[in-house]
Amino acid sequence: MKLPALPRYTLPRSPSGLLAMALALVSGLAAAVLLWAPAPVQGRTEATPRAVAPRGALTADEQAHIEVFRKASPSVVHITTLAAQRDMFSMNVQQVPRGTGTGFLWDDRGHIVTNFHVIQGATAARVTLSDQTVHEATLVGAFADRDLAVLKIDLPKTGFPPIPIGTSRDLIVGQRVYAIGNPFGLDQTLTTGIVSALNREIESFNQRTIKAVIQTDAAINPGNSGGPLLDSAGRLIGVNTQIASPSGASAGIGFAIPADEVNRIVPRLIRDGRYLRPSLGVAAGPPGLAQSLKLPKGVVLVQVGAGSPAARAGLVPFRRGSRGEVVGGDIITAINDDAVADLDSMLTLLERRQPGDTVTLTVWRAGQSRKQPVVLGNSE
Question: 225 catalytic, yes or no?
């Protein structure tokens, strides 16, 4: 198909012709501008602001949000972590900002709770209180298995109360929750939502499973980590730790470590500087070993330390015989009648105890189960 010829336009060649075209263009633009000129004012009136319409009283929901934030915000802190870096010219070592997170005051002695991953890899940290004063922090203790850490600062005498502690054992899906933190470095941000689900499981930063986790749709973004999750009474019910989001920003699925776990672990971090898990003195077989040998579900013992609590209680491991055959040993299937499915669940149950406590193991051997009391030792 042949396209029609385009029309030809010839520019004027004389200077006067070019000048005439330029003047025509300018006049056309001027006319266009004049089309937007303000209309003539017929009479002048005074330029006074409009009257403000009365809004009436705040709703009960709004008043509740305000009250929770007013009471809790002095207890919430902004954490800036630092890392040592050598200057390439002077070769001097200096501290440079590494990341930010949130924490909250645990007591009136200056102990601050946050996430382990907030301070992971840092060499120092600074804490900014709600009055914007900055304080150098020291590390008291950390427990990576539950993504918790405790810092300490020299706390001013007044104006910074410890956060009230609640419980997570009676939470109900649908109840109102509040998150306070420092997302993207923005201080003292309040978001609201509900308890979306309970008893979730997430993976900590050392691949241990954190159980009984709270799921919430309150917006949690980078920088909120370590901040408090509060109930409508302003009590701590969890510590915000992770989100589920392909983009890294809040998608309405956030997770918090339950307050009962926090209240169990933090005092021991303050007392001991670390979380000392009680020990049985055993080593477990690889996942799937019980199934491959068609044995009951539990922890298959493949090693029992000499002189360990398990050895004193008479536990014996599975082992290889002289001809390479598997010689039967013990499988721990429960602790204090709480079922043990694998090593991770056994460690979780042991974490609820302290060295020196006595527990009753349910032990399977050669087709028979027995109850065996054991005095727990120290993991060190």
Answer: yes
